[in-house]
Each structure stands twice: as structure tokens, then as C-alpha cells.
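ok, trying the design again with the full structure, not the truncated one.
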């Protein structure tokens, strides 16, 4: 068990012996004593009391802004040891965290290859949509027992537990969550003649269903007609594949999943209206032709520098813009002065506004996938200490992700962040992509149809019917149509 540390001790001893035998003159006494003490400390650490020091490995996909995804479990390690000591438990933990910024596809492939080889980490952080695939593959183990072990988990926002559920079992705990607002340029709206009060009232109008996607299109067209923004700069959605696009399907009354039947769902009328919206924004001249595939750096630069009137993004973009795009203009002060944010508007009167939330979750990896054993409760303890308001706020504030702990609503370091406090209400209007083993295939098909509709390769109706035909073939009994 945990052979790496033992091997390190043996190698250290061999290195010391080799150094002594290789030297023509004996090393100074102080150096010999120093090396001996280091080795003895490692030996004592290995056999401390009961001889069990567990090195917990934790992996996360994260960039330099999101480093707390793996750093927080490492910071939790000493807290676990304090808890173990107080309980008279002789075991101790060390935690090594890996933040991997290779990209989601490479990161997930790396984990699955490691799991197949029995060399996976003990804790893995990933999107909640990986729960069904990794649970069915035997890579992760149920979290229900872990949840009941430690009181820290009682403070997790209740709705977020559903993101880690699959067929009645719990498999994960939320690491963070987020909202995907409709951002708008306050300065440009004022240039169009909007008053300060009208600009500030827009989020409430959207929340109340008084300002829909139709109104957004009309406003963007007016801005272009007035010369406030350039043609094609009235509305920008996400420029690449991603769950954000599903928000427009929801905006027209769509839904993805029926939990009672455990089946995916397509609402045909909503699918057609979603595809029609994607084509319409291009035909109306507020989104450029061939927009999908636009480089992210171009996208971020344009929206953060007040070139676009409305756009879809994530709350996590706020910190990125402040740090990497408008720092020389004042960072967050510039953003607050120029940019507003609201829920995703309803597609049309009578529908509801909302936002897609995509929680990242921590999962405990199975013994078969790690090649180790006996660490479940210790990995669980690490995640309990990682899930506190204090610990999660380090990540939330540093990366502008919404918190996952109930206490963060009143935790001063969290509430002092104006942007996070202002967007926390969006979790009352959120929805998730479903944890269904066939959802990946589902999304690929509806995404492909959306691209064809937006690019004008097919009409929205043709694209929807083609997508439905493919869904029937590929998903069979796993899907229902409404």
C-alpha cells in the first residue's frame, strides 16, 4: 500500500550509502548527521504510531485562476490530521494535488487511461456529466456513505447534491458551480438613449419575463442602426461547442430529462425554435456569418472591451476579463462600470428565464482504479474539509465561481465579492444537463443540428427533423419525444 513513499525512503538510504562509499575522504560529520536525520524522519513518518501514512492523490482540470480545485484538498490535509489526532486515530494523510491545464478532453482521457491501468488518483474532480460513465465503468464509488460521515457535508447547498446523483445513488459532492448570464454593455445602452434607471432595471425585467430574446434581437438591431455597435456585434453566443447553447432550447420551453422514466427528452417545437433563433441572429445581422469557431481570445477581447452589446458567458469569465483583458483599464472597476449581467431571457412571452449550471464535482475513485486500498474514509475526510465555506470561498472568489456551501451566503469574505453576491440568486433559476449515460450522444446530435441551422446548411425545420431522426436511431428506448 502506497509503495511510492516507501521506495523513496529506500532510495534515500541508498543515495546516502553511495555517497559515503564513493568519496575518497569521509564527508564532514555535520553532513552525515544531517542526512541521517532526514532519513530517520521519513522512517518515523511512515511508521508513525500504527505505521500508516496515506498519500492521497487528487487530480483536477484547472488553469492558474482555478488552482484551488487541487490546491484545496492539499490545504485540507493538515486539517484532517488534526481531526485524526483529536480522535485518537493513529493514521495520517499527505495530499498531493495536480492541476492539469491540458484541456478537458485530454484530462479525461488521461484519467480513464490511468484508471484502466490501476494507477488513477484517489480523488478526481470533473464535470458532473462524467458520473454515469465513470460509475458504470467502475472507476468511482458511491458517495452516500461518505456524505453521512462528516457534518461539513450538511452545509452543501441541497440542490447541488442532485448533480452527483445517478439512478437513486449519490456519487459525488459539488466542487463549485456557476451561472451563465446574459451579459450586456451598459455604456452602449446609454448611448442608445436608455436612462441609468432603465439600464439598472434590465436584470429584473428579464427575471420577470418582460424582456425576451425577441426584445434582445430588436434592441441589438437598433444599436446597429444607430451606429452604436458595428454590424455583427449585436449579440455573440459561445463560439465553440458547449452546454451553454442548451440554454436557448430551455428558453423556448425545452427539457432534457424525465427522471421518472430515466429517459432523455426532446421537445420538438422547442428544438425547432432554438435552431430558428440561432439562424435568425445571423440573418438579422447581429451575429456574424460563420461565427462558430471564432477564436476564444478574439471573443474575450471583443466582449470585454465594449465592442458587443449582448453576449452569453459564464460567471467565471469575470475574473479572466479583469485579470487578463482589461487590467490596464481598471480591472473589475472597469467591468462594473461598463458591463451588466442577468438571467438568460425567456425565448418568448410565456416562457421562463433561467441559467444552465454545470457543477464540477469531486469523486472518490475505486480501489480497482487506483491499485490501492483502505483509503475511502480518509479521502472522504479530505473532501469534507475541502467543502467548508472557508475553503470553497478561496476558489469562488479567486475564480468567480458561485459557492457550493450554504454558509457562504453570510460568510464575509464571500459576501464582500460584489459580483458573486449579485449573481448568487441565479441558482434559484438554474437547471443541469442530465446524468444519463447516453447524454453525450444526445448532445453531439443536437449540437450538430444547431450548427447546420446557424450556418444555413439546413433550415431550422430540416435540421431539427434530421436531429430527431438520428436521435431515434442512436438512442432508441433511451429517449422520448414530446
Amino acid at each position: 500500500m502506497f509503495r511510492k513513499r516507501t521506495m523513496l525512503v529506500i532510495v534515500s538510504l541508498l543515495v546516502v550509502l553511495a555517497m559515503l562509499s564513493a568519496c575518497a575522504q569521509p564527508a564532514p560529520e555535520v553532513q552525515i548527521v544531517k542526512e541521517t536525520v532526514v532519513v530517520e524522519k521519513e522512517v518515523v513518518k511512515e511508521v508513525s504510531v500504527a505505521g500508516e501514512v496515506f498519500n492521497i492523490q487528487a487530480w483536477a482540470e484547472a488553469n492558474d485562476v482555478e488552482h484551488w480545485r487541487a490546491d484545496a484538498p492539499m490545504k485540507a490535509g493538515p486539517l484532517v490530521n488534526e481531526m485524526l489526532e483529536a480522535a485518537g486515530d493513529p493514521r495520517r494523510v499527505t495530499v498531493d494535488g495536480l492541476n492539469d491545464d491540458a484541456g478537458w478532453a485530454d484530462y479525461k482521457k488521461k484519467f480513464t487511461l490511468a484508471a484502466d491501468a490501476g494507477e488513477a488518483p484517489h480523488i478526481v474532480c470533473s464535470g458532473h456529466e462524467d458520473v454515469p460513465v465513470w460509475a458504470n465503468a467502475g472507476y468511482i464509488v458511491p458517495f452516500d456513505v461518505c456524505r453521512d460521515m462528516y457534518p461539513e457535508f450538511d452545509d452543501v447547498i441541497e440542490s447541488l447534491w442532485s448533480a452527483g446523483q445517478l439512478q437513486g445513488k449519490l456519487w459525488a459532492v459539488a466542487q463549485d458551480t456557476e451561472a451563465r448570464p446574459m451579459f450586456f454593455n451598459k455604456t452602449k445602452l446609454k448611448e442608445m438613449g436608455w436612462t441609468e434607471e432603465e439600464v439598472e432595471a434590465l436584470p429584473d425585467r428579464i427575471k420577470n419575463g418582460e424582456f425576451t430574446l425577441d426584445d434582445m434581437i430588436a434592441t441589438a438591431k437598433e444599436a446597429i442602426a444607430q451606429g452604436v455597435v458595428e454590424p455583427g456585434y449585436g449579440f455573440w453566443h459561445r463560439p465553440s461547442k458547449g452546454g451553454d447553447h442548451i440554454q436557448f432550447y430551455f428558453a423556448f420551453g425545452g427539457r432534457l430529462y424525465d427522471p421518472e422514466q430515466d429517459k432523455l427528452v426532446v421537445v420538438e417545437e422547442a428544438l425547432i425554435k432554438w435552431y430558428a433563433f440561432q439562424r435568425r441572429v445571423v440573418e438579422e445581422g447581429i451575429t456574424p456569418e460563420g461565427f462558430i469557431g471564432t477564436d476564444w481570445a478574439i471573443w474575450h477581447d471583443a466582449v470585454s472591451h465594449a465592442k458587443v452589446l449582448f453576449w452569453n458567458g459564464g460567471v467565471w469569465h469575470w475574473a479572466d476579463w479583469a485579470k487578463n483583458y482589461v487590467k490596464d483599464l481598471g480591472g473589475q472597476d472597469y467591468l462594473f462600470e461598463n458591463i451588466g449581467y442577468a438571467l438568460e431571457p425567456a425565448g418568448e412571452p410565456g416562457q421562463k428565464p433561467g441559467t444552465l449550471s454545470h457543477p464540477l464535482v469531486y469523486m472518490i475513485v475505486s480501489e480497482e482504479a487506483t491499485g490501492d486500498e483502505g483509503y475511502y474514509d480518509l479521502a472522504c475526510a479530505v473532501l469534507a474539509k475541502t467543502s467548508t465555506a472557508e475553503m470553497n470561498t478561496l476558489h469562488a472568489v479567486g475564480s468567480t465561481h458561485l459557492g457550493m456551501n450554504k454558509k457562504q451566503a453570510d460568510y464575509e469574505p464571500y459576501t464582500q465579492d460584489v459580483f458573486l453576491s449579485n449573481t448568487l440568486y441565479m441558482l434559484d433559476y438554474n437547471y443541469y444537463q442530465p446524468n444519463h449515460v447516453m447524454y453525450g450522444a444526445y448532445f453531439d446530435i443536437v449540437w450538430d443540428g444547431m450548427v447546420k441551422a446557424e450556418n444555413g446548411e439546413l433550415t431550422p425545420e430540416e435540421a431539427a427533423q434530421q436531429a430527431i431522426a438520428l436521435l431515434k436511431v442512436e438512442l432508441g428506448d433511451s429517449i422520448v419525444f414530446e
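Keeping the full-length input from now on. Residues 1-50 have pLDDT under 50 and may be disordered.
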